[in-house]
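Q: For a teaching session next week I want to show students how multiple molecules come together into a single three-dimensional assembly. I've collected the sequence lines for a complex. Could you give me the predicted structure tokens for the whole thing so I can convert them for display?
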Amino acid sequence: MAHLMGQMMEMPLMISSLIKHAARHSADTEIVSKRTEGDIHRYTYKDCELRARKLAQAFARLGCEAGDRVGTLAWNGYRHLEIYYAASGSALVCHTINPRLFPEQIVWIVEDAKDRVLCFDLTFLPLVEKIAPMLKSVKHFVLMTDRAHMPAASSLKGLLCYDELVEAENGNYAWPEFDESTASSICYTSGTTGNPKGAVYSHRSTLLHAYASALPDALGCSAADTILPVVPMFHVNAWGLPYSAALVGAKLVMPGPHLDGKSLHELFENEKVTFSAGVPTVWLGLINYVKQNDLKFSTFKRTVIGGSACPPSMLRTLQDEFGVEVIHAWGMTEMSPLGTLAKLKGKHVSLSKEAKERLQFTQGRVVYGVDMLILDDDNKPLPWDGKASGNLVVRGPWVIASYFQRDESPLVKVDGLDWFPTGDVATIDADGFMQITDRSKDVIKSGGEWISSIDLENIAMAHPAVHEAAAIACRHPKWDERPLLVVVKKPGAELSREELLGFFEGRIAKWQIPDDVAFVSEIPHTATGKIQKLKLRETFKDHQLPG
Ligand code: ADP
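A: Of course. Below is the structure for the complete assembly, covering every listed component.
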């Protein structure tokens, strides 16, 4: 039987519609950027959209054709935002590259994506000059600055000036409409094991993600907000904020390369920022700076923390001492990235402060558009009782179905449906609050039982003398593996192994208390600011546990 069809306008979901909407309906709303050049740049959504149109013309003049990739090595700033909209909006593909990766990895990624144009901030000129001979696919190198800041000489032949390219065009350009499933952007996973893999987003997936992430139980973005994405635009598209800010017409504040506590605090205060988002490590720096200098936040009300587990001590400090609501969130590159957020339900309103906090410490509930399951090793769904822990799988229109240029499917079948295995191990409670215990490759298996490294880290981080902590598995002759805690002390703080291990008593089952503590001056982080467990395990592979 033929279905009766709806009789609504057919309008493909286009990324350009976001910036068009912002330019028409939030024309004078500001986008403020702290530039690599050092100064503050201000303009509006209207200005941004016009420059994005000119940039789309410039890309076409450079010979770019539909589907070509435009790579970026850039901080959060207005030019980067223009590239987001100009590239995707003109059917090119915006490929944000994490500049903190090793140069060899960057070369590999640019070549794998076959970027035709590479746009980069002044900061990365020396890097690009070094790797350019290896970048066979790149036809045009564009330095994201004005004429005055162009280098007198560069080994990059035909180096183009971004502002000149834009200013040479007339803006007489209409955003094209095309199939909403067309690729809009690519992000590569960091590839802790093996080579990085590309997640290819579409206009449709990006728009659906932008709608859902702006909801009150997600990021909760509004036209009354001033949003400062600390999370870089090269880390899963700054978690979609460049899109959801335009969708709601929120003021955007871009920190550029200035991510230290002092610069961030100044920007938060001067621009009256209400909302932010970032990984726990950046908040460590900002909180320390604000505390040490006895400062506060006058307008900052909410922040999303994700990318790795938000330590409960950090959540409490921000909420109790600074009055900033923390929204703990979980996601991944393969999920555009939003999956779950720890927002309470109506039935939780009357809970005690501690009980509410316990829910906030979890990674939270799915947003509409994502569904999840936890599976046992035979891919059988496990109960949502807050106890059973299993492999977390997800599905939804902004979850990848395959990786760029890879044939093998990453998906698993459960009851006839395809699910994406996240590589995370989690529990889910009856209200749908999901809690990650570990990445499957980071779990500590002691005598057949699992010990959550996140639980151990959260306890250690609550100790006043601890700056940062990582729990890793260490070989043990009897138990296979036992936990070792690697700790960076706060500057000037006194702390012994015995005192720290004593701090675990009563906070966790006795058999889960780490066997040993290694004090170090620094814990290695990945290019997205996560603890590099692989490297730590390597460093401590011959560590002798006491007893
Ligand atoms: P990478 O950092 O490896 O490039 P992602 O940013 O996509 O890639 O990392 C996704 C992973 O980060 C998740 O699978 C999970 O292990 C971890 N993660 C993200 N958010 C959280 C969180 N709130 N708590 C614990 N782990 C998290």
